[in-house]
Every structure is written in structure tokens, then in C-alpha cells.
Amino acid sequence: xxxxxxxxxxPNWTMTVTKLPDTVSPGAAAGYQVVITNNGPSNISQxxxxxxxxxxxxxxxxxxTTTQGTCPAGPLSCSFGAxxxxxxxxxxxxxxxxxxxxxxxVTFEGNTTGSTFTDVKGRSHGDLLLSDPVITTTALNSxxxxxxxxxxxxxxxxxxxxxxxxxxxxxxxxxxxxxxxxGTVSDGSITPDACIPNYVxxxxxxxxxxxxxxxxxxNHGADVPGGFFxxxxxxxxATPTAFVHTFGTGQQEKxxxxxxxxxxxxxxxxxxxxxxxxxxxHNGSYTxxx
Length: 290
Known about the structure:
Number of domains: 2
Structural class: mainly beta
Number of strands: 20
Largest sheet: 6 strands, antiparallel
Helix content: under 10%
CATH topology of the largest domain: Chondroitinase Ac, Chain A, domain 3
Radius of gyration: 23 Å
């Protein structure tokens, strides 16, 4: 007489991918946050993450960090070791996009063998796939009034590229955005005015605004504790009295000139280049005030 041997229930694991940001400029970096969670009930003894860009498995990453294990330079090939029930691992990865086109596709696959898209749903080599591979598409926007990028190095920024002229009164850049964050800016014809007349407690005469509205979005709308710079090049050389910052659900504030020790939010003005540097931790719309 033989007694049956109970087998452990397989782990229930999930993978979510967040784009950083949703849209970037052609040629800029596109970023992704990949979170793999083991919901139990059993542990995973060995876990890997691989990817392919388009149909290629040889495209190197431009940036990668992980909360567990290692992700060597080159094509994405992370080895996490064991992932116990109830635990998660997070990878942030960036790739350089092509200089033209309308979209950029990356496919992520979690598995237990380290193979690179050779197994089909775990039916060969004993491979246990997380699920069907996750295909993620980042839009590429070449509009000159738009700028989007994933920050791989805080010393490099990104912005829109339209030259100032009679029809284009303003250009906008992001600088000092910490590595691992995504950001977008837009102004001109693709960005509506956002000023709130007679807003209390900071009333603004919206008829005195100068130039265009610059819309900034970083970290999917959340604040960035370390701060960053919004660089606005305004065609009108008049020194601004303040900037109007509209944000959240109908909130507004005036941003005044920085003191001796800059404290966010505040701005400095370079009259020679008619450029304002706004130090902030917030998303939202920024408009020059006469």
C-alpha cells in the first residue's frame, strides 16, 4: 500500500510594467518600471527577467537598476535569485529610442530558467513562465512643441525643440530630473491656457500673462522630493514679476523670484538670454506674468 505524496501549490506571481513616461521624443530614452510579485503560497527558487526590443534580443539597455539580484550591462538579463511568497522585486530600465517613428515596443518576460524567449508558456526545458510576455508600447511624438524623455543621468535634461519666432513665443525644458524618472513638457498650440481668474488665496489677472503656457508632467503626476528645474525661454525680454503655477484639481500659486538661498518654488531670470529657471518639486502649468 502506497500513501500519496502531496505536492506544494505552484506560486501565483504577477508582473506589472509602468511606462516612464507614456510618450517620449524620438531619439530620447524610454523608461519602464517592472514589478514582479510572488503572491504565494510557495516560494520561487530562482527568477529571471529578460526582454526584447521589437524583435531583437540584443539591444542593450541605457539604464538599469534592481532592488534584488543583478542586471548586468548589455541586453536586459536580470538574475534575482529566490523570490519568496509575499515578496516583490522592482527593476527600472531604460532604452534609447530610434530617431524617427511613432512607437517603440519592448517585451518583458519573467521565467525560472534564464532563457530568452525560447520557451513557449513553459512547455519546454521545464521553463515556468510568469505568464504570456508583457508587450509595452511607448508613443513617440515628434511635435516641436513637445518634449519627453526618461532620465538616465541627472546632468542631462530634455525639452521641446521649436525655435522662437513670431509664432512660437516660448520653449520649455526640464533639467536636474533625477535618474530613473520620466518627464514631459509641452507649450504652444498643443497646450491650452490654464490660468484661473481671481483665484483665492492668490488672485491673478490672467490678461497680464505673457507668452505661452508650459505644461510639465514628471513621475506620473507625483511630486519629486529632490526637486528639478523648469527652464522657460520666453521671446519677450521683459523681466517677469512672477510665474503663475496651476496644478492639481484647480489649485494655483504665484512663483516669485528666488532669494539668496533658493527655496522651491522660486525662479531666477537671465535677461541676456530671456530665460527663466524655475526650481520646483511640482507638476502643473507655468506661465510668465508681466
